[in-house]
Amino acid sequence: MTPSQEKKLRVCPLCEATCGLEVTIAGNEVVQLRGDRHDVFSQGFICPKGTALGQLHTDPDRLRTPLIRRHGQFVPVSWSEAFAEIERRLSPILAEGGRDAIAVYLGNPVVHNLSLMIYSQVLLRILRTQNVYTASTVDQIPKQLASGLMFGTFTTIAVPDIDRTDYLLMLGANPHVSNGSLWTVPDFPGRLAALQKRGGRCVVVDPRRSRSAEKADRHIFILPGTDAHLLAGIAHTLFAEGLVTLGRLEPHTSGIAEVEAALQSFPPEAVSPVCGVPSETIRELARELATAEHAVVYGRIGTCTQAFGTVASWLVDVCNVLSGNLDEPGGAMFPKAAALAANTFGAPGVGQGVRTGRRHSRVRGAPEVQGELPVACLAEEIESAGDDRIRALITVAGNPALSTPNATRLQKALDQLEFMVSLDLYLNETTQHADVILPGRSPLEDSHFDVVFNQFACRNNVRFSPPVFEAVPDHPEEWETLLRLAGIVNGQGPDADIEALDGLVIASQVQAAVGADASPIHGRDAGEILSELANRRGPERVIDFALRSGPYGDAFGARPDGLSLARLEAQPHGIDLGALEPRVPELLRTPSGKIELAPEPILADLDRLAEVQPAASRGGALVLIGRRSLRSNNSWMHNIPVLMTGKPRCTMHVHPSDAQRLGLEAGALARVTSRAGSVDVPVEVTDAIMPGVVSIPHGWGHDQPESRLGVAAERPGVNANVLTDEFELDPLSGNSVLNGVPVSVQAL
């Protein structure tokens, strides 16, 4: 390292693994980026995405100034001009149509960004619109709903304790590529190798022989969308063969008898023709799960993005409970995050539980879950006439024009809006429809703390990253931009006092904590607490307060050895908070104070599950599934040169037998057609996909004329969501069905 260079530490914000990075910089340039070997959690592991932060920082396509659409063209403007335009255009819509005339869409990167994560919720509370949409309903909301009904909060999700397990059964998950999902697990390949070295086994159930399946001890093909049938057969076998062992959870679990009765209709012989897994294999899986000393079932996006996403997600934890592996070392355990985890608030062991359906979408009547409506309903809410239609849209760090079902319809609907504003780093397939684009900062110019992913970590830890670079002068942080928008929708205009608004944010949190009986600062003087936080502002002040009043916190002096942001800043490699520990019953927030194993809405949906016909009834029709690449977690990553090297990845995988039957040739184009639309995509013939199934990755389709993604446009690929159907949803959660989509394929 030369004298002009210096090293900075940073937690990677690009996926759920949250790896620690060591960044060597010279001036405003990244010279080298590698894993931080001393990071308490990731211990030097890094994936290709982490190395891309330098190119993201210097990407010439990344927006640095606001844009306004004038006479059909985007022109750069000052921040004051941009906010004045928003106030001018948005205020009449609010006055005429009310708050529900404005919709908000929050994209996946929100949960990776401290400012966006905290202050987008502030904007929503001030706006008070019923029309809230997020990427959750094309991703994980079924798991959150199932977990909420069972354990009491939407983020109380059990994760595999991989470092102590002997048997890992994974369905619809590919952590070799995803680095974990709803499971924060840096260096999954190394952890899996360690599991196998100590004599453990990993079994992967997937319609495709993924990278994780290749490294597993066993791979089992399954027909897309039938994971719930397989899991029901496993649970049925546990009951039928006397393998149920509740252990210490028995007094803390209700609904066992109801679950046993409900699963009587799903013996292995009944579900095998539906899911394509032999009945004896189903029994083997049940026995292996029950007899391994430490075992765990994990299901992820493939189990969520299907017609029975909530039922499948529920059955994952039903199997963990029945086999005695929930809340046990080496099983499915519950992390204890240092800050802002819902299962550390309130009285331990009891709560209000979760509610859904408090409102319904205007056109289709789809129910709300976790405060949001299915994003598959967004287009129709814009298109359909009526005084209560959506007339304006705010998007925050999202690209729904690519990521949501029947993307073609949504793109057309966006052009029917009266006004649209986007907070985003890029002029992309979604923001090209906006009237105003407000750019965020480079991730290396922001501080970082993982609010969400610490709640899913395979080992308890806490880390904080200060900015690597100083921000460009006069470029507001995202939280300031969001508060400026909040001031506009609240009638305070574009020059609202955002310092005062921010003061209200922290004051309300402090008042709530000192007034809560179970809070470690209950009864304290709110003014005294606020004075101790006065040297910080924005999200760092919120995090300092959350840490100090959290389960490991210093309680503002009452526990001198506890956590604070200052203590965390003094430990740049992070603080290890230890292995996961049993938390039932204290983490439960259900009305009964027990694990509610038999939620009525889920049991009622089993009738629909039983009606599914055997696979043979499809008559040779093909179904579509997605897939992901290690180098493309989000669509904007396709604009980073280092992540776009190698052979083209946007191809259609098809089995050799199907290719021969349909006359498909490797490298040639095939037309794939569904009810929603069609795409022409290059063919890749491989026996890694099971017969009857084709696979196209998500996040591509960078051929829109107004977007400014120069690197991505060189390899645009096709948008798989042109094929997915906006009318196909998991009825309980509202999640879109993105796997198991019926398609026809013909050679071109």
**How widely separated are the two ends?**
55 Å
Q: Class by helix and strand content? A: alpha/beta
- Number of helical elements: 24
What's the CATH superfamily of the largest domain, by name? Dimethylsulfoxide Reductase, domain 2
Question: What is the CATH first-level class name of the largest domain?
Answer: Alpha Beta
CATH topology of the largest domain: Dimethylsulfoxide Reductase, domain 2
Average pLDDT metric: 96
Low-confidence stretches: none
User: In which order are the strands of the major sheet placed?
Assistant: 5-4-19-18-17-6-7
The Cα radius of gyration reads 25 Å
List the domain count as a whole number.
5
At CATH level 2, the architecture of the largest domain is 3-Layer(aba) Sandwich
- Residue share in helices? 25-40%
Q: Per DSSP, what share of the residues sits in E-state strands of 2 or more residues? A: 15-25%
- Major sheet description: 7 strands, mixed
Shape: globular
Tell me how many strands there are.
28
Keywords:
748 residues, alpha/beta, Phosphorylase Kinase, domain 1, Rossmann fold, Dimethylsulfoxide Reductase, domain 2, 5 domains, seven-stranded mixed β-sheet, 24 helices, 28 strands, 30% helix, globular
Short description:
30% of the residues lie in helices and 16% in strands.
Overview of this protein structure:
The chain is of the alpha/beta class. The chain has five domains: 1-58, 2-Layer Sandwich (Phosphorylase Kinase, domain 1); 62-129 and 374-448 and 464-496, Rossmann fold; 141-346 and 591-608, Dimethylsulfoxide Reductase, domain 2 (3-Layer(aba) Sandwich); 497-573, no CATH class; 619-747, Barwin-like endoglucanases. The protein has a seven-stranded mixed β-sheet with strand order 5-4-19-18-17-6-7, with helices on one face. Strands 23-27-24-26-25-28 form a six-stranded mixed beta barrel. Strand 25 (669-673) and strand 26 form a beta hairpin. The protein is globular, with a radius of gyration of 25 Å.
